[in-house]
Specification:
The complex is a heterodimer. By secondary structure, chain A is mainly α. Chain A contains seven helices and no strands. Chain A is flat, with a radius of gyration of 23 Å. Chain B is mostly helical. Chain B is elongated, with a radius of gyration of 20 Å. The termini of chain B are far apart. Classes of the chains: A mainly alpha, B mainly alpha. Chains A and B meet through α1, α3, α4, α5 and α7 of A and α2 and α3 of B.
């Protein structure tokens, strides 16, 4: 596949999946965010001392409109960037995925693994919080924890993927199916260790627990959906692009012979 | 032979074009940073110049723009 084709299908799949994520979040996750921000404003206004600005409702509405609109575009940008990583991982690993020759299935397998490594693992240790939870003072500390955990998960998976590939080459045909067990077990052990060793999120949850749990569940559903949509669209585009380039190559061969 | 060398230079063993990997990694780094982590460092020009830190609603427009997705995608936020 040509570089430009590969870039195009990767970005297209990412942008579509990300935009869908932003749009669906408007309906599914936004009610929780709205509620959380109302509570946050209420807290701020009750603790406001004289002289502090209390949020003006009209300004507030305009600002929420901006945030919600931004979510769709931010979805597109996030989709483009996560899609880029996904495209690279797929291109490098598709030759090592055994059990199927179907690119659409392989695309979903890669999406599933990346969902586990890059979303589920960090979300189990540092679950997403709605607005109203989270102290601005600790943002850099919390970001460091989150990135560290993400990096442990991502780089362990990357290293183990190389190990898996080496083991696959070295193994005999009878044992190929069992090769996945060792890298998976090592990954599970590393993540369990990291889960126990890493410090917890320092911020107290001072919003109603129903709100926080509802937010976590709905956002987990939409992000999971994002990965599935990304895999489906990318797999379909990859096959389509291969089909077209094979056709062009075939025609070229006919003409030149 | 020359053609073969040319091909190995431009693509990895898996046939992935290196230039594409470079470009896509750039998109990844830029996008994840601004949506997930930026606190006004990269898009600092969007924070008002009047000395406030952009913590009041509507004053740090780039942050506000990404705000809801940052929460919904599970990144840490304020």
């Amino acid at each position: 596949m040509k570089a430009i084709t590969f870039i195009a299908i990767t970005l297209l799949a990412g942008a579509i999946a990300g935009t869908i994520l932003g749009a669906i979040n408007q309906v599914v996750v936004e009610p929780y965010i709205d509620h959380a921000i109302e509570l946050e404003m209420l807290q701020q206004n009750t603790t406001a001392q004289s002289g502090q600005v209390i949020t003006n409702p009209a300004e507030f509405a305009a600002y929420r409109f901006w945030q919600k609109g931004g979510e769709i575009i931010a979805g597109t940008i996030l989709g483009l960037s996560i899609g880029s990583l996904y495209g690279i991982v797929f291109a490098y690993t598709r030759g090592s995925i055994s059990g199927t020759n179907n690119n659409k299935k392989k695309a979903l397998i890669v999406a599933g693994i990346m969902w586990l490594v890059l979303f589920l693992m960090p979300a189990l240790k540092y679950p997403p919080n709605p607005p109203a939870v989270g102290n601005p003072e600790t943002i850099y500390y919390r970001q460091s924890l989150y990135v560290a955990f993400l990096a442990i998960s991502g780089f362990s998976a990357l290293g183990l993927a190389f190990l898996y590939r080496k083991m696959m080459v070295a193994s005999s045909n009878n044992t190929k199916k069992k090769v996945i067990i060792i890298p998976s077990a090592v990954y599970a052990a590393i993540m369990a260790g990291a889960y126990l060793a890493m410090p917890a999120n320092p911020d107290p949850i001072n919003a109603p627990i129903d709100l926080v749990i509802g937010f976590r569940i709905t956002s987990a559903i939409t992000i999971s959906m994002f990965w599935a949509v990304l895999g489906v669209i990318f797999g379909a585009l990859w096959d389509k692009a291969n089909f077209i380039s094979n056709k062009i190559a075939a025609r070229h061969n006919c003409n030149s012979s | 032979m020359l053609v073969n060398n040319e091909i190995t230079k431009k693509t990895s063993a898996e046939g992935v074009p290196r230039i594409a990997v470079g470009i896509l990694l750039g998109v990844l780094a830029f996008g994840v940073f601004i949506v997930g982590f930026d606190q006004g460092e990269m898009l600092g020009f969007t924070v008002p110049a009047d000395g406030s830190e952009g913590n009041e609603p509507g004053t740090n427009w780039a942050h506000e723009f990404y705000h809801d997705m940052r929460h919904a995608a599970g990144f840490p936020c304020h």
